[in-house]
Every structure is written in C-alpha cells, then in structure tokens.
Amino acid sequence: MAAVGLGQAARTTPAGALPANMVPHPREELFTVLVVDDHPLLREAIAARLLQMGAGTVHEAASMAEARARALATGPCDLAILDLGLPDGTGIELVTELRSQGWPRIVVLASSDDPYAVRAAFQAGAQAYLLKSASPMVVTDGVRRVLDGGVYADPSVAPVLAAGTRVPGTDNTPRELSAREVEVLQLVADGRSNKEIGEALNLSALTVKSHLSRIGRKLGTGDRAQMVALAMRAGVIR
Question: What CDD domains does this protein's entry cite (predicted)?
Fold first, then answer.
C-alpha cells in the first residue's frame, strides 16, 4: 500500500477484527497513531504491526512536511512513531514540536545507537528509543510500554544510554545512573507512586524501592523531589 497522503484514508482496524488479547493493557479502547518514516516498506510493516496490537487508526507521513500537515489535520494522536533520519529535517525537531502541541507519547525509531542521538531524543520528550534493526518483539514491547505510560530503550541502546549518564549529587560530584534508574526517576517526576512505577516497568514495589534507595545513595539524598530536581537540572529527565 502506498504512503497515506492527506487526501487518502488512513489504515484502520476493521470492526470486530481485533482479538481481545491484542489490546494493549490496560488500555481497552483502540488507539490512534502517526507513523513518520520515509521508507514505504518499513512504514507499512510498522503500521501493520500497530493494527495487530490494537491501533484503531494509523496515519502515515514520509517527511517532516507531511508529518506537520498530518499533525495539524488530526490533532494529537495517542502515539507517534518517528524516524530520526527524515529527508527534510531532523526527527528530534519533530519530537519537540509534537510534544509542544500536546502529543502525549512519542517513540523514536532510528538506525543509529549514537549516544548523542539517544540522549537528545529523550531530552526532547520521547518516551522510547527503538532501533530499526530491532525484532518485532522488541518493537511491540517498546510500544506497549509507552502506551502503558512508561519509557523504553532498545536493549542494545540501554547500555549506551547508561554510559556517562551522570547527575551531580548533593555534593556536586557526578554520579552515574543506570538506564533503569533513569526510567524510575522519570516516572517519579511524572508523579507516579512506587506501585504505579512497578506496574509501568513490570517490577515489584520492593524492586522499585530498591532502585530508589540506590539512586538516593548515589545522589546523596533520599528526598524524591530533590532527586528529581537534580536529574532535571542535569538534563537526564524532563
């Protein structure tokens, strides 16, 4: 199927065609998505996967210009999946624009695990960073995690994200945080309780508490608000 232009219908899930167990937990209604990628075959494959996962409507765009026009026409969708390497601009710029327009969940799709690109994507407001080489299972896991309110980094990117992720502690000494600790801190910043963080990351409340204890030891404070403030000032979370 060709790319969906502004005058064409978006891909939709036929009524009654969605198995109940494919709807992303805990969302029970169909969700809407914008997929932005300049490679038609990859874009179509992603769209097909999303429809299988429970997307009701998948809008498509092949460039920054098309994405902007589509976003203006539809308003914020439940999810956007954006290629970083667009022909007429940077996907990071598009992440920033969509977040400023009220788009709640953004997944970045990239061919590179460059640390700068990974950090820039999360700092711009993306909730996930996936590689184009990822397996369908990894893509599904990442999208489900974001739909459930969490954040996600491709398993091969997580070590890159963690390496050099430094936050000055209360004594201004840089302390490295793991990718998981960054995820936990972001959810703390989003106002989630330990139980909610555990549900979002598929962790027990005890494990979440252990992560927070380690973060507190690294940063020199057990105060959640102060931990979040330190991480925000360092640009690690938004």
Answer: LuxR_C_like (cd06170), REC_NarL-like (cd17535)
Distance CA 182, CA 188 (A): 10
Burial of residue 26 (number of CB atoms within 10 Å: 0-12, 13-18, 19+): exposed
**Rg, the chain, Cα only:** 18
Q: Is 187 exposed, middle or buried (0-12, 13-18, 19+ CB in 10 A)?
A: buried
Amino acid at residue number 6: L
Q: Are 163 and 95 within 8 A, CB to CB?
A: no
Kindly report, residue by residue over 66-113, the tens digit of the pLDDT.
999 999 999 999 999 999 888 898 888 999 999 999 999 999 999 887
Nearest of 48, 82, 46, 50 to residue 66 by alpha carbon:
82
Q: How far apart are CA 71 and CA 62, in angstroms?
A: 13
Q: Cβ distance 105 to 79 under 8 Å?
A: yes
